[in-house]
């Protein structure tokens, strides 16, 4: 943990520059009749969960180049997220991955979470690899497997995830399946879908009634011919069959290039079935880049759709579970997460600034250029001072990455944990 003095002292060195930028954006919004503090309050309330697997350096199938000081267990992962939350005030929960993060002492873990002002976001099951000495393999699928033994093992694992989650007061199970096929003819599409639907229904029945099941989709990888849940339509159909607490999870990286993700978001919210959102950046596919790093305009359009749905009283969609799902392999993981949250908050802030009455009017009257310009005008507005101010108002850093570097956090973590510590699961 950092002392509050370190954050405050570093903020002081940035204060003059910050005040200048904040005054400018405040004046700009004032002229538009927007209450600046109400926007800052909404930014302060927006919280993005950090997944335990993003705290270590990610790799490719060719190699991994860690910086050192990685968290060696669940407790150290919680400490890292606590540090991120201390710096930005916007990361108040952690998502767990089972079996990598099985709590050995649940009450001690809960105490540590409380000390770091954190909660558990979701528990994420893992049937994409076989564990050591596993009795039946997932090589040919998990919840879709042709054999009862493998399928039942995967069902039991998901139910065990819910039990671990219950111990730590989570209420969300996220299911992403690496089930699919690599060759034509390998898998019977309809049978694989039905077995998956039946398995998910069994898991759903075992969940407490106040839990949510998030079903994530992905078009390819690890399989390159077919995936059992490749798209939002498949996820949606499964949720429809399973029950009202089953919701679709959209992961930005899980789309083919040029997919209109903003339209998918709009559709799912219209149906009241968008339950979760995973942030990352993507160039070609699921490449785990920093959120907003490649297509910031599309990211803004997606957020515009999210905010439009969240603000419309006619939309009966549950509150969304926001999470970063990336583990980049060339940056310091904590710096990458701070940068990601910053990009998310700035884009959310922009979406809040869109004049929805004027936009609706332009849309209804088919004023194409006006509608587009209303969005472009906001997209090109620099709102980073609002995000910095939101962080400052809750005791965070004006510039979290700069403070992280100034306080030599990574150097200290390497000192404590060693140069060659490896995060569990990586
Ligand atoms: Mn994801």
TrEMBL record:
<dbReference type="GO" id="GO:0046872">
    <property type="term" value="F:metal ion binding"/>
</dbReference>
<dbReference type="Pfam" id="PF01261">
    <property type="entry name" value="AP_endonuc_2"/>
</dbReference>
<keyword id="KW-0464">Manganese</keyword>
<dbReference type="InterPro" id="IPR013022">
    <property type="entry name" value="Xyl_isomerase-like_TIM-brl"/>
</dbReference>
<protein>
    <submittedName>
        <fullName>Sugar isomerase</fullName>
    </submittedName>
</protein>
<dbReference type="GO" id="GO:0016853">
    <property type="term" value="F:isomerase activity"/>
</dbReference>
<keyword id="KW-0479">Metal-binding</keyword>
<dbReference type="InterPro" id="IPR050337">
    <property type="entry name" value="L-rhamnose_isomerase"/>
</dbReference>
<feature type="domain" description="Xylose isomerase-like TIM barrel">
    <location>
        <begin position="103"/>
        <end position="288"/>
    </location>
</feature>
<keyword id="KW-0413">Isomerase</keyword>
<dbReference type="InterPro" id="IPR036237">
    <property type="entry name" value="Xyl_isomerase-like_sf"/>
</dbReference>
């Amino acid at each position: 943990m950092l002392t509050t003095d370190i954050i405050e002292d570093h903020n002081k060195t940035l204060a003059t520059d910050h005040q200048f930028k904040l005054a400018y954006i405040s004046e700009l919004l004032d002229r538009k009749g927007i209450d600046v503090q109400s926007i800052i309050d909404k930014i302060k309330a927006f919280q993005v969960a950090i997944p335990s697997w993003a705290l270590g350096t990610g790799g490719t199938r060719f190699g991994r180049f860690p910086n050192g000081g990685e968290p060696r267990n669940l407790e150290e992962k919680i400490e890292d997220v606590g540090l991120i939350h201390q710096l930005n005030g916007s990361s108040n929960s952690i998502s767990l991955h089972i079996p990598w993060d099985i709590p050995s002492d649940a009450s001690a873990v809960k105490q540590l979470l409380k000390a770091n002002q954190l909660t558990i976001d979701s528990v994420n099951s893992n049937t994409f690899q076989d564990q050591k000495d596993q009795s039946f393999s997932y090589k040919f699928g998990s919840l879709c497997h042709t054999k009862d033994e493998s399928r039942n093992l995967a069902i039991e694992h998901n139910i065990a995830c819910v039990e671990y989650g219950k111990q730590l007061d989570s209420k969300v199970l996220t299911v992403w399946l690496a089930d699919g096929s690599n060759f034509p003819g390998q898998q019977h599409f309809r049978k694989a879908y039905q077995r998956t639907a039946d398995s998910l229904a069994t898991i759903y029945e075992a969940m407490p009634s106040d839990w949510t099941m998030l079903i994530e989709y992905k078009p390819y990888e690890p399989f390159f011919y077919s995936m059992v849940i490749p798209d939002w339509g498949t996820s949606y159909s499964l949720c429809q069959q399973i029950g009202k607490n089953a919701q679709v999870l959209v992961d930005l990286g899980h789309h083919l290039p040029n997919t209109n993700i903003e339209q998918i978001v709009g559709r799912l919210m219209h149906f009241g079935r968008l339950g979760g959102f995973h942030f990352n950046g993507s160039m070609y596919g699921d490449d785990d880049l920093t959120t907003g790093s490649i297509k910031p305009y599309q990211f803004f359009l997606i957020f515009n759709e999210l905010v439009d749905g969240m603000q419309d009283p006619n939309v009966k969609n549950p509150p969304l579970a926001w999470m970063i799902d990336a583990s980049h392999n060339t940056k310091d993981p904590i710096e990458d997460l701070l940068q990601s949250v910053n990009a998310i908050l700035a884009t959310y802030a922009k979406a809040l600034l869109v004049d929805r009455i004027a936009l609706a009017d332009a849309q209804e009257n088919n004023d194409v250029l006006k509608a587009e310009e209303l969005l472009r005008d906001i997209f090109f507005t620099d709102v980073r001072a609002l995000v910095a101010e939101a962080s400052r108002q809750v005791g965070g850093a004006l510039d979290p990455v700069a403070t992280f570097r100034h306080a030599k956090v990574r150097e200290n973590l390497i000192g404590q944990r060693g140069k060659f510590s490896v995060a569990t699961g990586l």
